[in-house]
Amino acid sequence: MTPPRRIKPTLILAVIAASGLALLAWTQVWVTVRLAADGTTQQVLDVTGSIAAPGLTALALAGLALAGALTIAGVVIRTILGLLEALLGVSVILSAALALADPIGASAAAVTTATGLAGVDSTRSAVSSAELTFWPFLALAAGILMLIVGLVVCVTARRWPGPTTRYESTRLEPETDATTGQGRPRDAVDDWDGLTRGDDPTV
Fold this sequence. Notes:
This is Peptidase. It comes from Cryobacterium zongtaii. By secondary structure, this protein is mainly alpha-helical. It has 2 domains: 4-159, Butyryl-CoA Dehydrogenase, subunit A, domain 3, CATH 1.20.140; 170-203, no CATH class. It is 59% helix and 11% strand. The strands form 2 sheets. A 3-stranded antiparallel β-sheet has the order 2-1-3. A two-stranded antiparallel ribbon has the order 4-5. Strand 1 (29-35) and strand 2 (44-48) form a beta hairpin. It is elongated. Mean pLDDT is 80; it is low at 164-172.
């Protein structure tokens, strides 16, 4: 079992890694499309993830932002963020799955740009073949990882370590009066006078 102090950094790094993989996949070629020959040549189109799954970049960037929010979130917000991460994962899975299930449909915008043809039937008739690359599968894997990590965040939210005392404010003790021996509160004037003498008022 992972120690509680290691759960937080491990899961935050996992969120960043999954979102980074999705963003990397989005920038790469997902489908290689060959258009129907016009009698002399056959045009080849490289369809990137930005065309095949245009919403993927927003989902990946949202995941990166969520990782930052997790670093300072309390238990309740942490659980909510875990659910959001899981939903982002489901959305990434759907985006990749749609492209994998219908690569020609995912390439329609690129085909329209290259040929000027519009409409589902016209674009499909213009394509002779469409070959998937490795990258949509990586996007699918990234979405699955995001889903799993989000659920793990929800389950382990109460086990994350609490805030440390490193950034807590310094507690000032009352200064003792030299004549009466009684404690008296320190004020801004006392602190200023101490600074001019080279004293540290926080000690």
